[in-house]
Every structure is written in structure tokens, then in C-alpha cells.
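Notes from the pairing session

We agreed to fold both candidates in a single pass and log them together. This is the raw record for the first candidate, unedited. Please don't reformat it; downstream parsing expects exactly this layout.

Candidate A
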Amino acid sequence: MAEYNKKKTIVIGHKNPDTDSICSAICYAALKRKVTGEDVEPARAGHLNEETQFVLRYFGVEKPMRVRHVRTEVRDIDIRQVPGVSRDISLKSAWNIMQKDSLVTLPAVTPDGMLDGLITVSDIAKTYLDVLDSSILSKANTRYSNIIETLEGLLLVGDENAYFSEGKVLIAAANPDMMEYYISKNDLVILGNRYESQLCAIEMEAACIIVCEGAAVSMTIKKLAQEHGCTVITTPYDAYTAARLINQSMPIGYFMKCDHLITFQETDVVDEIKDVMTSKRHRDFPILDQDGKYKGMISRRNLLGARGKSVILVDHNERSQAVDGIENARIREIIDHHRLGPIETIGPVYFRNQPLGCTATIVYQMYQENGVEVDRTTAGLLCSAILSDTLLFRSPTCTSVDKQAALELAEIAGIEVEAYATEMFSAASNFASKTEEDILYQDFKLFTAGKVSLGVGQVNSLSGSELEELEKRMLPYLISERKSRGLDMIFLMLTNILTESTVLLCDGQGAERMIQDAFQLEEDGKPNWVLLPGVVSRKKQLVPAIMVALEG
């Protein structure tokens, strides 16, 4: 899995994307990469319709990644890269790391990167303040290497990777005759340079002796220790200091919290974790990736600097049509050819809106303005978008600029416009295998006019009989869908490309009468049904008429 780059900018079209939305996103992202060198990737906010899938297959282009929302996620903020440590490191080592890096919480991580537990400054402080019994070192299963490190010692006999796992810790302050009464098998004995004391501890089967103040240890003692399996360590510290420090050699795994840890994933939405973070007294929280592996730590303070995702919008500029969470995103640019909608941005943005038939035409102009060569694939995608949005130049939205751009791009792509467009439109007309939901939402947009909410879908076909079949199927679904979505009105344009006309299915209080009045038509007696001769464009013909009627 590729590493997530929070500096990446995504170029994305509207929900229920059409061919223009997808192709413009792909081509504009490529242009931005070439011109700026930035990490810019195309994305889609919904399922690809058959027409768009045909275009991408025809030119051998992978479909853009699906983005379900652009809300600020944990991975969009500054995650502190606190390195994970082994549960076997000593309390002293953990304390040193925390002091050096000004950490309050230190994560323990398994060799394969999974979170093992957490230890805090207060956990370590508690080990100093609590009264611990003399067997705590063995209960904690302390490795001899930890003891050597903590006491700045030197191993003379034994294996530093072995563990002190039985017995108690004691200081051999009495004379050798008394020692045999309180030294037990497997004890760890802190003592001085007296030969007799060292010999007694070994003979009493101590697991380890620690010789203080850097005292020399005779060859005889070393040999006897080896024979009895007794570890011998020397330390420059005196007995009091050694006894005081030795508990710091215990592994953090014995004291750290392992259960009921509060963790977050990289993909968690910041707004959804704020309440959890503020309700807990913890200073820091571990972050895990999708595989559950530890990635770093965040604190409540990190949320203050959270920045939204970087986004460029193409082929739309209305919030109702945008990907979920757009209000939290950093919109950098908007490239569009629709009416201006009520979308707000955090700061100034580059906004290019032209009264053309297709966003792809604008993108083509920007390639030319920046002196970037248009290759065959890019030309094919842009040309397909223009042919789709202008219904092969039949739509009233089509301008001479769109047509000229499409013909130039078709020549670069090596396609014959009429034949290719017919094949492309036919690919989208396989309605028999689609559900009513698929048909309605393959090209569906939401609008608001004052307090009225409405949705408008469009289906284009070269076959009149196919559209007639859709009338019967789609009207009942349209009525139920308006109610389930809570819309005031809903419309579906069944557009015949060849006859350049639309049968409009509609539902909602006054919807049919409003359309008839807007287009000055007589009642035809067919409920929820209006024939609109010469109307093929949602953007330029139907929606403006609806808006005028509702606002008038």
C-alpha cells in the first residue's frame, strides 16, 4: 500500500459523475502535475456510468480512485513520529527517551509493528514512590542486560540475555557466618569486595551477585560462579546506590498499560474523535494504520492545527453536488461551466468559469495556454467529454469553441467523431441490465431554489423505443425515491439524441404544472409526464426554467 501523502491535492467532479466530470478530473490533474510538479491525483465522488467506463476502456485509462468524503482525517494532521520501543527496555531507558524527546507517553511496539502497550511519565514515577517488595525484580522478569545497563556494570560471568526470574534482591551487609541464614536459592545479592561474602553467596546458590565499587573479582570466584550457574556483574556504584538504582532496570512491559487502550486509525474523521479525546485525561493517543500497525501519536493540541484536504473542483461549484465534507476541505481551484452556486471557500481560490458546453473544453484551453502537448489519450478523453456533454453538438449549450476543440482533439486521438459518438452513446444505453436506481443516479444532480429542494436526472439514448420502455419502469421508482429522499420535486429527463427532444418524468406538488407553465405548454392529460420538444440540456434549458418558475 502506497504511503499516504497529506500534501496531495485531489481533482474531483460532482456526485454521480458523468463523462465530463471524470475525464476533466483526469486530464486537469495531469496538467497540474506537469506544470507545477505537485502531487495531484484525479478522484471520483461516485460510481462510473457505462458511457464513462466505455471511454476509459477505449483509451486504456484506469478509473480514478473513489473518494467518499473529504472530511479532515487523522492522517491529515501532524502525527508526532514517536518511535515505538520494545516492552523489554528498562524503566531507566524509557525515562531517558522521554526526557530527551519531551514525551509524556511512550508506546511499546511488537517486532512486527503492532502496538503492545503504553507507559507514561506518571507510570514510571509511581514505581519510584510505591513501596515494592524485594522480589519485584524477578516478578518483572528482568533481563540481566537491563541490570548491567542501569548499573553501568560489566558482566564477568553469565549470559546478559538471560532473565532474573526467581528470588529476591538483598544486600549482603552481615558477616559471612550470618549470610547463610537469609540468602536463598536464586536470590540476587548486592555485596562488596569481601571474598568470603562472594563465596558464601555462590555456595548458597544465588542466581546473581553484584560486586560494588568496581572491586576486582578473583579467578577462583569466577570459576566457582560459572560452575554454580551464578551470574557475576561488577558496578562502579556503592551498595546503597546500586540498591536504589536496580529497580530502574525492570522492563516497562511489567508496568505499562496493555488493555482497553484508546487508539485511533489514520482514516478516522477528526470531528468524530474530538469528543473522545476531550472526555479522557490522557495527553496522547496512539494512531494505527488500516492493518493495525502503530504509526505515531497525537494529542488534543494537534487538532488545533488540523488542515483540511486539498481539493480542486471540476464541472461543478455547488455544495449540494459536491463530495461529502467539502465544507471542511481546502478548495484550491474551481474549473466549471455551470451557473454559480452557493459554495463557500476558506480563502481566495482560482475560479475559472466559462459559458461553454463542457468543462473539458476549458481544460483543453488551459493545456494550450500553458504550452503543454496534448497526447492521444488526453485528447481522446477530452474529446469524449465534449461529445457527451454537447450530445454530439446537438445541445444548445454547445458553442463553436466546443465544436472546434472536439474536432481538433478527435484528430489527435485518431477517432471519427460521428462513429465514435454513436458507439459511446450506445454503450450507455444498455438499460435492460440496470436497476432503476442505477438508471436514475447515473447522471443525477441536486439543486435548491429558496426553500425548495429538487433533483434532476438525465438519460440520453439514440433509441426511442428504449426510452419508451424506461417511462414505464422509472415513474413509480421516481415517485418513491422523492419521498424517501425528502425532496420537494424530482425530475428525470429521457432525452432522445436523434429527435432532440425530452420526455420529462416528474413528481412533487405542482411539479408538472410548473413545467408546463415554464415552457408554455398545454396539459396533455398524462400524469407526471411532459413532452419537451427541442429540450436536451439540463444545464441550459431545464434547470434555468425551473429556477425562474420557482423564484418568480
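Candidate B (folded immediately after A)
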Amino acid sequence: MANYIELTAADGFIFPAYEARPAGPAKGAVVVLQEIFGVNAHIRAVVEGFAADGYLAVAPATFHRVKPGVELGYTPDDVAAGVALKAAVEGLPPPGVLPDIQTAIDYAAQANGAAKVGLVGYCWGGLLVWRAACTLSGVSAAVPYYGGGMTGAVEVARTPRCPVLAHFASQDPSIPLAGVEAFKHAHPDVQVHLYPASHGFNCDHRSAYDATAAALARERTLAFLTQHLA
């Protein structure tokens, strides 16, 4: 069962989230954080995939504070629009959209009987997962995929409050390998995996999709979630 719900952040801001529930009792909860393309068909499929694997899953619309109803594709124009929307959100006064993510975490935990909550995010969502793992409460595991900006000095200086599994791509021009190595050196407790693929390798709607890398990353992600959300 999947549908949109409305959540209310601590400051009263109301925003939508896409939720899917498993057929039987959930073994945990997962908050999915979108790329720069909104809660589009791909992100909804990811949410439904986690539900099929036994998790209550929810994806908050993290663009909603700057523009509601964003659902982009992957054309050059879509990329440009997504980059502009990301910049607008990043330009919000602190703490930006982190309260919305905290609300989604709290909702996911309570909707599943105070279950443990994991975070999984892609691209910009991967960066938000890292920030949430370092600053928010109620997170038992965090899995950023090719988090753009994660390897910058400001982000590397953060300290995670929960176990983190990070997926990067060796052929990703937006995340230089030197930055990945610096991140690994600064965070030896973070499990870092590097794949011979490009940025966006998990998304089967993009030309960068790599089925082998996506399958291996998903296998590792599910094992990590099982370990920390049980």
C-alpha cells in the first residue's frame, strides 16, 4: 500500500511525503531522501522497493519549502531546474529542511510502533542523509549514495551519531576520488564502498544506471539495515 501523506514540521510547515507499507508486519522503518529531481517516479519506486523488502518507507518532499509539487525527469533542462531548486533550499536560513527530515524520522518511528529508523538518500539526498546522521535524533543507520558535497571540508568535519554506510562511484566527476579518500581517512568507522560506475548508478531512469553496481549496493544496504534496525 502506497500513498501520499501530509506531515507537519516543528515550525508548523506542512509538506507531503510518499509512504509505502509492507504487506505484513514491518521489520523497521526507512526514510528515503530524494535526488534533485523531487519525489518522482524513481524515488517512489525506491520507497515501494523498501516496503517490498519489509520496511515501512517514507520519502519527504524536501523541495516543498521552496517549490511544491516538484517531479522532474533527467533531461539537461531537468538537471538545470533541479540544481537551481537545490541551491534555493541550501540558501534557506539554517536549519533549512532538516526539521522536515526530523519530522519524517519521528513519523516513521511512531507509525511503526517506535521502530528503529534508517535513512537512505541519493545525490543531494545522500548529502542530507549525512547531515541528518550527524545532527538529528532517532536515526539508527544511515546510507548515503554518492552524496554530492559530502567530501567537502565542512561536511567531512561533521561526526555521525549512528552507523553509516556510504556508496561512491569511481567515475563520478562531481565527487573526486581524492575527496572520497579524505572522507575515508577522516571517518574510519564509516563503511565506504567504491563502485566502477558513474554518479547516479542506482537510478534505472538514467543513462548512468549500472545494474551490477546498483544490485551490489542494494545488497549491502539491506544487510546494513538488517544489522542496525533489527
